[in-house]
Amino acid sequence: MRYFKPATTIDEQIARLRDRGMVCRDEELVKRWLVTVGYYRLSAYWLPYEVAPNGTQTRSKQFAPGTEFETIIDIYTFDRQLRLLVMEAIERVEIALRTSWTYHLAHASGSHAHMSAELFESSDDHKQYLQKLKESIDRSREVFIAHYTGRYADPSMPPLWAVTELMTFTELSKWIAFTKDRKIGSAIAKDVGLPTRETLSGAIQAISFVRNICAHHGRLWNRQLVKRIPNIKRFKADLFIELDGQLNRAGFAGGHFL
């Protein structure tokens, strides 16, 4: 089947929304959102407001009576605020993981443990990750990197606590995952309040998945997450209470989660 849908103008998009039953009270407001956010992006937020399709349809493309464009804006704004709150929380987790891994690995195996292939599960993976790290160092304009490379020739890379500052969350998670010494994984889990290194591994995967959504301004609201944090029931009540409090402080009404 060949795709044949043509591009539409803003006025055509507004007309389409109205034809399908969307209440658009303030046309200038609707136009501004369609210009700055886009019809396609917003469609993910109004999809749940469409009437259920019949047996032969995949979508009815008709809105439930009373569906207002302002409601879609409210949901979109809520989702944006949610992403910002989640990213703030992930920032703390990311820094804590980086600090804990650096501390335990450096104390166990020295300041340049990242350069020793025998400390990691796969020498091939180690070679690949170390090369990526070297490329990050070469590209870096950070003062602390310039200080090391300008003063020291051996070892060729800065110490562990410096190079981890250049790692992305995905890169950091891979380094943690293939660290051979299991005691280090257990120590990191303890530092961040998780029961086991296996739980830590699953949590890092889930957080990385959510982080990528947030970093690319994706939708968190009404989304089924593929990766989930193990043993989430142990922390669910505290998590929801804290997140609800954060949303209240951000200006939203209470009761979003509880």
Automatic annotation (TrEMBL):
Organism field: Hyphomonas hirschiana VP5
In which domain of life is the source organism classified?
Bacteria
**What protein name is recorded for this chain?**
Abi-like family protein
One Pfam family in the UniProt entry: Abi_2
Instruction: State the taxonomy lineage.
Output: Bacteria, Pseudomonadati, Pseudomonadota, Alphaproteobacteria, Hyphomonadales
Concerning InterPro entries, the annotation shows: Abi_system_AbiD/AbiF-like (IPR011664)
